[in-house]
């Protein structure tokens, strides 16, 4: 059974069911979170402008730095995970090298009278970003801007249609498709209904026509307004975050049925929600306390799944050892038995533990070729983890320096004659 089979056995057609833990924010109030493409790292922005990088398995902070002077609004990872794009309330957009965050690679500002709402990397081009601007001039509607980081060229996107239609339905969100060839925008209308479309249907529809969604999701009872949405890595489940409370509704895309509602603490509001790229794990950010909550599956121990011959004992039993069961060399074994063991060793498959192959569940239908998932950073490969430098206790360093600078007893008694001469002079 390979890794993909194990993944399907334990994680396929699944969704989070309970709260797992809360990430340690080191006293900062989080505002936004983002998984990298592989799901190994989590970027979290805070209200004081700091950016934290968490390791997904250990849930510990592996890197932190001051990115902006005001709260972070959005975060976006590049495809290889080496760059991180951040935007802030101060109107600036910064591109960071994850391994070296002393200075940003690029810091952009779009002039007086505008502020950035969020910024995104092109999924296939880390030198092209999409920035959604909010223009403070009420006579001009907001619009997304595509900027090339190498040339500095900007292209402002305008909605197709008449000026009156553009004014009635201003753009409120924009996003790249998986291949980075198209930009999909949305308006502020119909925040009560989540609609699911096929991208190819959107491309084939004629201008002015109305496209019917393949599925609709809404809270018919409470008439909830949705703050943010996300989907599972395979697209089988859709999660909608409420704007009135810290609650997450999870639907099955194929049937449209509501399968789970996750409730956070009472009195909290939701700020952001993200689904892990390939696991049934969701992280959500509370707008009130700024805490980052991890939601996962309910853990149920089932040892028979790992050992088919496993049986539960109602009482303790004394195990009787068989003759030669734990002997290094079985003296009673026949020659035929030794030959069979040699044949089994020769036929045994040799496992390659050095070559890293891309798991099938990380390859979507939008991938052109099987990507090299090795971690050779010098040759431009993907960044899986951030190297952690061991912290040295400064208190221990100071005590070592003081002990080295302090004269010991041997130096004091090395020249007794000089000390006696000094005492006579003093007298």
UniProtKB/TrEMBL annotation:
Its main location: nucleus. The keyword Hydrolase does not apply. Residues 327-346, 400-427 are annotated as: Disordered. Gene3D superfamilies: YVTN repeat-like/Quinoprotein amine dehydrogenase. InterPro entries: RBBP5/Swd1, WD40/YVTN_repeat-like_dom_sf, WD40_repeat_CS, WD40_repeat_dom_sf, WD40_rpt. Signal peptide: none annotated. GO terms for cellular component: Set1C/COMPASS complex. Keywords: Nucleus, Repeat, WD repeat. Residues 406-420 have a biased composition (Polar residues). The keyword Repeat applies. WD repeats lie at residues 65-98. SUPFAM superfamilies: WD40 repeat-like. It holds the Pfam family WD40. It comes from the Eukaryota. It is found in: Nucleus. This is Uncharacterized protein. It comes from Meloidogyne javanica. The lineage of its organism: Eukaryota, Metazoa, Ecdysozoa, Nematoda, Chromadorea.
């Amino acid at each position: 059974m390979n890794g993909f089979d194990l993944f399907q056995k334990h994680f396929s057609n699944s969704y989070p069911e309970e709260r797992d833990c809360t990430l340690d924010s080191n006293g900062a109030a989080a505002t936004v979170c983002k998984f990298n493409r592989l799901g190994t790292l989590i970027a979290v922005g805070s209200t004081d402008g700091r950016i934290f990088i968490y390791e997904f398995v250990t849930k510990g902070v592996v890197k932190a730095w001051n990115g902006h002077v005001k709260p972070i609004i959005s975060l976006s990872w590049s495809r290889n995970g080496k760059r991180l794009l951040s935007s802030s309330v101060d109107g600036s957009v910064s591109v960071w090298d994850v391994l070296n965050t002393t200075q940003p690679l690029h810091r952009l500002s779009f002039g007086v009278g505008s502020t950035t709402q969020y910024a995104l990397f092109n999924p296939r081009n880390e030198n092209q970003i999409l920035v959604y601007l909010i223009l403070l001039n009420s006579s001009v509607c907001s619009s997304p801007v595509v900027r090339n980081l190498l040339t500095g060229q900007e292209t402002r996107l305008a909605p197709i249609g008449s000026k009156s239609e553009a004014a009635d339905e201003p753009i409120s969100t924009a996003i790249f498709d998986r291949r980075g060839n198209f930009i999909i925008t949305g308006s502020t209308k119909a925040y009560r209904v989540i609609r699911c479309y096929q991208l190819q249907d959107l491309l084939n529809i004629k201008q002015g026509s109305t496209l019917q969604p393949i599925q609709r999701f809404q809270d018919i009872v409470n008439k909830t307004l949705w703050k943010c949405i996300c989907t599972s890595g395979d697209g089988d489940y859709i999660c909608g975050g409420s704007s009135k409370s810290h609650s997450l509704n999870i639907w099955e895309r194929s049937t449209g049925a509501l399968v789970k509602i996750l409730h956070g603490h009472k009195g909290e509001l939701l700020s952001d929600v993200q689904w892990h790229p390939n696991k049934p794990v969701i992280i959500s950010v509370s707008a009130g306390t700024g805490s980052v909550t991890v939601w996962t599956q309910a853990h149920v121990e089932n040892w028979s799944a790992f050992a088919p011959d496993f049986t539960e004992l109602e009482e303790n039993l004394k195990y009787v050892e068989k003759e030669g069961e734990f002997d290094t060399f079985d003296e009673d074994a026949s020659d035929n038995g030794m030959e069979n063991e040699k044949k089994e060793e020769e036929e045994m498959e040799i496992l390659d533990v050095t070559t890293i192959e891309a798991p099938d569940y990380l390859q979507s239908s939008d991938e052109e070729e099987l990507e090299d998932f090795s971690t050779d950073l010098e040759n431009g490969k993907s960044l899986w983890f951030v190297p952690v430098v061991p912290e040295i206790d400064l208190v221990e360093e100071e005590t070592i320096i003081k002990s080295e600078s302090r004269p010991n007893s041997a130096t004091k008694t090395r020249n007794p004659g000089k000390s006696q001469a000094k005492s006579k002079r003093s007298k």
